[in-house]
Amino acid sequence: MKLQRVIQYAQTLLTQCIEKGEVAVDGTAGNGHDTLFLAQLVGDAGHVYAFDVQKQAIDATSERLFEHGMSNATVLLDGHENIAKYVHQEVAGAIFNLGYLPGADHTIVTKGNTTILAIEQLLQLLKVGGIIVLVIYHGHDGGKEERDEVLRFVSSLPQKYVHVLRYEFINQKNDPPFIVALEKVKQFSK
Ligand SMILES: C[S@@+](CC[C@H](N)C(=O)[O-])C[C@H]1O[C@@H](n2cnc3c(N)ncnc32)[C@H](O)[C@@H]1O
C-alpha cells in the first residue's frame, strides 16, 4: 500500500466523477498537463474548457493538445473568474492548480478573490456528484493569503449541498501542496 501523492490523488478524484461525453474545466491551463488529462477523460464526445491569463500558457496547452491529437478542448485566454461567460453546460469535474506557471514569471499567480469567484460559478454549473479539485500551492509570495482566503470560503459552504475534503501530507517540509476537493451533493435551491 502506498499513499497516493497529491497529483495522483487529484487524478483519481477526477477519474471517479467524469464520464466520457461530459464537460470538464481546467481553471488554470498552465503547460496543459491537466487539460490533456481531462480531454482524454471526456473523450471525443466530451469537451474541456481551459482558462489561463497568460498567452504563453494558452500556446503551451494548445500545442500539447495538438501533439496528442486532441481537438475536444477550448483554450481561453481569460481568467477563470469569467467561467460563466463561456461555459453553459453542466460540468462533471474541474481542476485548479493554484500558484504560478513553472518556468515563467513567478509574480503572475492565482489570487484568492478570483479563485473564489470561479468556484462559486462552477458550483452552480456542476452536476450532483461532480467534483472541483483545488491543488493548493502556498510556498510562493501571496500563496498563504490565497490559501487562507480559499480555506475560509470553502469551510463555510453548507454541507447539505457541498462536501469539502482536505487531503494533505502533514509532515513534509517546504510548504508542500495539498488538495481541497468539493463534491456537489445536492442541487442548490433557486
Ligand atoms: C500552477 S500553474 C498551472 C499548471 C497547469 N495546471 C499545468 O498542468 O501545467 C497556475 C496557472 O494559473 C494561471 N492563472 C493565474 N491567474 C489566473 C486566473 N485568474 N485565471 C486563470 N488562470 C490563472 C497562471 O498564469 C498559471 O499558468
TrEMBL record:
PANTHER family the record matches: S-ADENOSYL-L-METHIONINE-DEPENDENT METHYLTRANSFERASES SUPERFAMILY PROTEIN, TRNA (MNM(5)S(2)U34)-METHYLTRANSFERASE, CHLOROPLASTIC
Keyword Transferase included in the entry's annotation: yes
Species assigned in the record: Ureibacillus aquaedulcis
Keyword Methyltransferase applies: yes
Record-given protein name: Class I SAM-dependent methyltransferase
Gene3D superfamilies documented for this protein: Vaccinia Virus protein VP39
GO molecular function, one term: methyltransferase activity
Annotated InterPro entries: MnmM_MeTrfase (IPR010719), SAM-dependent_MTases_sf (IPR029063)
Sorted UniProt keywords: Methyltransferase, Transferase
GO terms classed as biological process: methylation
SUPFAM superfamilies, alphabetized: S-adenosyl-L-methionine-dependent methyltransferases
Cited CDD domains: AdoMet_MTases
